[in-house]
Amino acid sequence: MKIIILVLIGVFSGTVFGQSGQSKVSIEALNQNSTGNLNLGQDVNLGNVSGGGKSNVTVKGVTQNQTGTANFHGMSLGEAQGQGSQAKVNVQNISQEQSGLGNQQQISLGKASGSGKSDVTAKDIRQAQSGNSSAQSMEIGNAASSGQTKVNVQNISQTQSGFMNRYRKLEIGNAKNSANTDVAARGVNQAQSSSMSPQELKVGSGD
Fold first, then answer.
1. What's the pLDDT band for 9 if we cut at 50, 70, 90?
2. pTM to 2 decimals?
3. Helix (H, G, I), strand (E, B) or coil at 160
4. Per residue, what are the HEC states of 43-55?
5. Cα–Cα distance between 44 and 57 in angstroms, integer?
6. Distance, CA of 136 to CA of 161 (rounded, Å)
7. pLDDT: is 162 or 194 the higher one?
8. 71: part of which helix (H) or strand (E)?
9. β-sheet bridge partners, residue 144
10. Per-residue DSSP letter, 114
11. Are 50 and 84 in contact (CB under 8 A)?
12. DSSP state for residue 179 in the 8-state scheme
C-alpha cells in the first residue's frame, strides 16, 4: 500500500496490522484543530505497526491545535509492537499546542515492544501547553519487552504554563525488560512557568 498526501485536515491513522501488511506513506502539511469541551479523540497515528507489519513513513509539517476544557489530543509516530514488526519514520516540523483547563496532550515517537523494531529520525519537535490542572508528556525512543529502537532527534522543545498542572514528563531512550535503545539527541529544552506543578526529565534509564 502506498499513500501520498499533500494536505490533510482532520483525523488520520496510518497503522498496519498483520504479518503481510506493508505501508509506505508520504505526508506534507497535516493539520488537526479542535475547540470546545470534552473532546477526547483528536489523534494522529502514523507508521505504527504490529503483528509483523512494516511501515515506511516520511512526514513534514504536522500540527495539532486544541483549546477548551477536559480535552485530549495525542500523536503517535513509528511505534512497533510484536515479533517482526518494523517501523521507519522520518519526521520534521511537529507542533502540538493546547490551552485550557484539565487537558492532556501526548507525543510518542519510535516506541518499541514485544521484539518490535523502530527507526525514527525527527527534527524540530515542539510541544506547548497553557492552562490549569493539565498534563503533557513526550516519549521518544522508549523500548520494552525485548523491543529495539534507534532514534535520532534534534531540536526538541517542551513548554508548560499555568497552575497546579497534574504532570509533565519528557522521556528519551529508556529501556526495560531486556529492551535495547540507541538514541542520539541534540538541542533538548524543557521549560515550565507555573505553580505547584511537577516536572520530570528521564533519559537513558534502564529500570
1. very low
2. 0.83
3. strand
4. EEEEEEEECCCEE
5. 13
6. 11
7. 162
8. none
9. 113, 176
10. T
11. no
12. -
